[in-house]
Amino acid sequence: MTDADESPATADDAAGVETRHKDVCIVTGSSSGIGQATAARFLAEDWVVYATARDEADVADLADAGCRTAELDVTDGEQVEAVVDRVIDEQGQVDCVVNNAGFAQFGPLEDVTTESVERQFDVNAFGPHRLARAVLPHMREACDGTIVNVSSVVGELSLPGSGAYAGSKAAVESMSDALRAEVEEFGVDVVVVAPGPVDSEFYDRADDELASTAQRSGAYEDIYELYDDAASMGGFGPASIGPTVVADAIVNAASATDPAPRYPVGPVAKYAGLAQFVPKRVRDRLFSLARRLFA
Ligand SMILES: NC(=O)c1ccc[n+]([C@@H]2O[C@H](COP(=O)([O-])OP(=O)(O)OC[C@H]3O[C@@H](n4cnc5c(N)ncnc54)[C@H](OP(=O)(O)O)[C@@H]3O)[C@@H](O)[C@H]2O)c1
């Protein structure tokens, strides 16, 4: 990716031995699931990895494995700047940032408070924007770099009971499309990775979030029942993929010289992409049928 400096930086450089400078990445939300698997995968591919988490203790295993670690809450603009500054101080470059940190605020929209929607967007949509603004001056200067934004199948297919979450992911995808065209001329790539259901702590956390924040009006109990049934069946079962499958897609996108704009990952994401060709009125009828059949 980034070319070696002109002045010899190591004994090998001085001796004229060709050395490859390692690529450097920052991964947000590395404490579990996709972020943890992605940090490990980059490390296995010989990248210099900054695995970040809200609590640095949660990435101790990645530190033992060889990652650099840092505390990073993506809603904290000063922390975002401090982490990027540190990476530039220590490595002189940042080749990839993976905006993975995220959570789901489920619930029918009438029952979700505006504060919860703001928090949802603050993490899932404004977080990637903060990171992009912090790394872009360095990537533009290097004429190189990749921003990977982890979205979801619901970024293109909003479902009843997932409006806040789907809205935040649609926002990420829309901003990614604009950003990709804005920074292309500086050699910077912007990629959306959109998985279907993934086996991680995501759904347990979403259940806790829903239980603690939703203001249940009593009008949408059938939608809650659908979510409860899915949770009691262990989420999406065989339709789910492991976090390492998503990690592979992210590392492949970051390593590609000409990455695709969007990578749907897993069978659900690939087939759900077809739903965008179904007229919205037909989709509405299918949702309404599902509510009557399964609730
Ligand atoms: N699991 C799925 O089915 C699925 C499907 C499609 C897309 N995704 C997306 O994939 C990404 C990763 O999800 P996952 O499945 O790996 O879930 P996960 O295991 O729950 O991991 C989520 C990560 O995000 C971090 N996070 C949450 N709020 C944060 C904040 N304010 N600042 C920094 N980190 C924060 C969590 O850190 P803490 O430990 O500090 O809370 C955790 O490391 C998310 O963006 C999610 O929307 C997931």
Number of strands: 7
Major sheet attributes: 7 strands, parallel
CATH topology: Rossmann fold
At the first level of CATH, the class is Alpha Beta
What strand line-up does the widest sheet have?
3-2-1-4-5-6-7
- The H-level CATH homologous superfamily, spelled out, is NAD(P)-binding Rossmann-like Domain
* Bound heterogens, unique: NADP nicotinamide-adenine-dinucleotide phosphate
**Helical stretch count?**
11
What is the count of structural domains? 1
Quick summary:
49% of the residues lie in helices and 12% in strands. The chain is α/β, with parallel strands linked by helices and 295 residues long. Helix 6 (163-183) links the parallel strand 5 (145-150) and strand 6 (188-195).
Q: How do the helices and strands line up, and which of them pair or pack?
A:
Layout: H1 11-14, E1 24-27, H2 33-44, E2 48-53, H3 60-65, E3 68-71, H4 77-91, E4 96-99, H5 114-142, E5 145-150, H6 163-183, E6 188-195, H7 202-213, H8 221-232, H9 243-255, E7 262-265, H10 267-272, H11 280-294
Parallel strand pairs: 1-2, 1-4, 2-3, 4-5, 5-6, 6-7
The chain binds NADP nicotinamide-adenine-dinucleotide phosphate.
